[in-house]
Amino acid sequence: MNRSPSPKNSPDIQELLQNFRAGDPGVSDQLVSILTEQLKHDMANFLGPSHPETEDIIQETLMATLNYLTRDVEFQGDLIGLAVTIARNRGRDLLRRNQRWTQTSIEPLAEWLESPQKNALEMVEASERRALLQKALDSLPHKCNNLLRLIYLEEIDTEEITKSMGLKSRQVVYYRKAACLRRIKKIFHSLLDRRSIHVTRGAKSREESGN
Amino acid sequence: METDVADLNHYECIDPQVGGEIWRLDDPATEPALAERLRLHCQYCAACRIVRALDAEIAAGVQEGELTIARPISRSRQGFLWLGGLGATAMAAGLATIMVLPPTAPSSTQITRSGESAPAIERPVSNEVIAGVRPKLKWTPLPGARAYDVSIRSVEGEYAWQERTEDASLQVAREAALPQNQRFRVGVTPIPAHLAPEGGLRSTFRTGTSLETLIYRLTHGSVTAMAAGVVGTLALIVGAVGLTWPRRR
Questions:
Q1: pTM value?
Q2: Which residues of A144-176 are buried (b: 16+ CB within 10 A; e: fewer)?
Q3: Domain encompassing residue B18
Q4: Residues B17 and B84 in one domain
Q5: Cβ of B9 and A130 within 8 Å?
Q6: CB B51 to CB A3 under 8 A?
Q7: B37 and B79 part of one domain
Q8: Out of A50, A91, A146, B9, which residue is the most buried by the measure of CB atoms under 10 Å away?
Q9: Is there a domain that residue B190 lies in?
């Protein structure tokens, strides 16, 4: 994997990164200070001003970012972009969780909840996930459908797939599979979006009728 | 920036340069150090973790028989599907046209010098088979006619009905419903009678079952509609055979 030095970081941050990797103990505080400022601003936009979870998300993000930098010594990407994206993804997790908890009725799942072996919510989620995944698989384009069918359903060896599809190397099969998975992710998420909007509308109308 | 609901599902890759190489985790030939780095990236990157999770989920779902990946339709089969669909549409359109439009009347010898058709009974056309017992009769209006005397008589039986109307059409009255499976003669006499064309306004028709009516319509429908129906049927057959033909692996 050839990677050229990223031009995204300012010279100051680039220098701080180098010193951080070199083990300079004071640098992490400076990095934290720079990132905290940026994260506060971004999270205020993302979650809204003075969200009760903002501080936790920023702390978790700082920890995750520093851990990532410690472990991935080759990191040359955009440091602020890295931290902001981690924070936003955590923000998404939080909002999705809140959205789900406020709208999922537990009462019909009482029987499952009693069973110590089964986690009712996980079961519901798994079945919903599979249903959405099936829809995503059904709407794949011809080439992806063909490739994934060979890989998952017919369990054909990568070498054979390479030959039968007239590809240059096995790596192309892996690359195309990943591209198809990203496409599934995109379809899957757009299906989730529609479902979320539907659920949100349903909750709003329930609230309105309750009031 | 306000976060909307739709945005919640779109996780972003925290380090796209590394995330773009995630596919190498599947490749056994990937160097261990790089594989380790990609795994580390996945630990921190929700977007790439989702891709990996989808991979595992599809594999497990297919294994457990809960997910399936339908065989894609080949181009040739898609062609047959289209052909069959178009054929079915053409056939349906042809049939509908045949049933909706009046049947073609047998060629008339009563052609006037001007080239216009002579006055005639337009429905039922000569020798038409009709399914109902109260047909609506229709004829060419005659200029100057104040009214028309309409009569229907069965050829073999004793049925007879007569009615006067001022219009150029008349539906058989409920109490005068026609008996089934009989041949009838219909005559229309204008008032005054001298307006009647040479030979008068006369026709014959028959009452029959729905099947007999359908067969009659199919054999006496508009040529264009019948051609569309025949071509459509052939296309439908070819499409159906093409789709059900055993496929090669």
A1: 0.54
A2: bbbbbbbbbbeeeebeebbeeeebeebbebbbb
A3: 5-63
A4: no
A5: no
A6: no
A7: no
A8: A91
A9: yes
